[in-house]
Amino acid sequence: MAQPDSTRKSHAVVIDVADDAEPKCCCVCTEPVEWVAVGRCGHRDVCAGCATRIRFFQDDRRCCICRAHCPTVLVTRADDDGASSSSRQQGFVLPTRLPPTAASGRVGSRAGSYWYHGATGTYFDDRRPYRAAIKLCVKPPPPPCPASQGAVAVSLGAPSQPAAGANASLDAPRRPTPVVFAVIYLCVIMVLVTMSGAFFQVADRYYQKVTIVVAFCLLSAVALVVTIRWWNRCKRPPT
């Protein structure tokens, strides 16, 4: 909290530092950190997961704070004071010579009292973050973030097209279904049957009855042809 300096008659303001009880967060993912990656510059602001991703997938061996080149880093606990605050300012003393088991090209091996991950040039003083780093480097890299969330690419030169599943033309008339044509055809046939039956009853000669039957067959065929042509015409897309 900012307080005025009452001991001296000046406008100096004393600003209290942040409370040490607050959890430390990673400067990359802004999540509370349990393990931090420390380079020779001594910064402890990047969690082990973000440091592994940056050093493995992006092949970037620089510090995220001061951009100093750190060929090797040490992953240790975020709340580990080590040798008090002086060690934090001077940085950790990393092993200067790698054992033969940590030769170049090896994914991981022991380096004295540390676990060494050769793909990222990282030392681990605990086996848990070391195993997590090995699993993380097997996964594919995360996809790049888009320029803006929810952005839609629009091509000004391309003609506009309706979206899939959307009604292309809301004002277009509804087309009749096959059931409608079947009902119309059956109604025509019933009318022809009724008329043919009426004429057949009043006909007293043989040739008249034959003429009625032939006329019924011809009219039924014509009705069927007309119905089929109408249906095919309605199926055509509008031009």
Automatic annotation (TrEMBL):
Chain ranges of the RING-type domain: 26-67
InterPro entries for the chain: ZNF598/HEL2, Znf_RING
Chain segments annotated as transmembrane: 179-200, 206-231
Q: Which GO terms describe its molecular function?
A: ribosome binding; ubiquitin protein ligase activity; zinc ion binding
Q: Name one Pfam family in it.
A: RING_ZNF598
A biological process (GO) annotation for this entry?
Answer: protein ubiquitination
What is this protein's record name?
RING-type domain-containing protein
Native source species:
Panicum miliaceum
